[in-house]
Specification:
about 290 residues, alpha/beta, Rossmann fold, 12 helices, about 40% helix, about 15% strand, globular
């Protein structure tokens, strides 16, 4: 691992134990950038690398962020709280940091998958407006569907040898690898030239949901049955495992996406200089998760 450059202001990573934030911490440390990792609970520090300086803070208590922000040069903002404190938090970022990178969503993308009513998108849009009003040097990173959703959605059934019972088999998406998202975020945090950037990140290909389970089956060397269920049955199956609002959001998005290719961008290639990982690459790298309990 590279040594931190002592002349470089630290980067504060909020959401530092999440699926993107945790990988961003690693990427920054590998690039020799000093990292501050924000956690809500001190015990979460055990999951972070020794090279990260850990601060405890909570987006719902804005003044708790001040110690972590003091002297920070850039901030990754991953909003994981209700919106009521967003204005105060953004004002604090503007008072301390030069650059902010917001992990948002593709709600501005004119593709039906991203244009359905979505409270998360509304939250992101509000935070984007707050950041724009401050004059901060800012970048917005908008990942589409994550490849890693397959772990939560399909891995339990696949591990059990059962069929994947899921709606909208023909709904296409372009799953993006978390590692590619993290690499782009890390690059925009410590490399100049991304002020004002607005990047929609996708994988390299449009794949229906049924095709994605086929890819996983190919990687595992056994067929995986996909049994399409109705939206009503999916709501019943999801009770107790996902908020009903999130289920309704996904059903609306998948329904609207059927019949046309997924939205695919070149942003990962453009920023990193390397092509985004395919869904097959992601599945091969995570094959154990589909055969063994984590």
């Amino acid at each position: 691992m590279s040594q931190n450059r002592t002349d470089t202001p630290p980067v504060l990573v909020t959401g530092a134990t999440g699926r993107v934030g945790r990988a961003v911490v690693d990427r920054l440390l590998d690039a020799g950038v000093p990292v501050r990792a924000l956690v809500r609970r001190p015990e979460a520090a055990a999951t972070l690398p020794a090279g990260a300086e850990v601060f405890t803070g909570d987006l719902t208590v804005p003044d708790s962020l001040d110690p972590a922000l003091n002297g920070a040069g850039a901030v990754l903002l991953v909003w994981t709280a209700p919106p009521r404190t967003a204005a105060d938090v953004v004002a604090r970022l503007a008072a301390h940091a030069r650059r902010v990178v917001l992990l948002s969503s593709p709600h501005r993308t004119p593709h039906p998958l991203f244009q359905q009513p979505n409270p998360v998108a509304a939250l992101h849009a509000g935070i984007e407006r707050l950041i724009a009003a401050t004059g901060l040097e800012s970048t917005v990173v908008r990942p589409g569907m994550f490849a890693s959703n397959a772990l939560a959605w399909w891995a339990p059934a696949i591990r059990a040898g059962d069929a994947v019972r899921w709606p909208y088999a023909d709904a296409p998406t372009a799953p993006v690898d978390d590692r590619d998202v993290a690499a782009v975020v890390a690059r925009t945090l410590h490399q100049d030239g991304h002020a004002g950037g607005d990047y929609v990140l996708t994988g390299p290909e449009s794949l229906t949901q049924a095709a994605q389970t086929d890819v996983i089956g190919d990687v595992l060397g056994r067929p995986i049955a996909y049994e399409e269920v109705t939206p009503e049955e999916f709501r019943r199956l999801s009770q107790g495992t996902a908020p009903s609002q999130a289920v309704d959001m996904l059903l609306a998005a998948w329904s609207a996406a059927v019949g046309q290719p997924a939205h695919v961008t070149t942003a990962v290639q453009d920023i990193l200089g390397t092509p985004p990982r395919t869904f097959r690459q992601w599945a091969a790298d995570h094959a154990d998760a589909f055969t063994h309990h984590p």
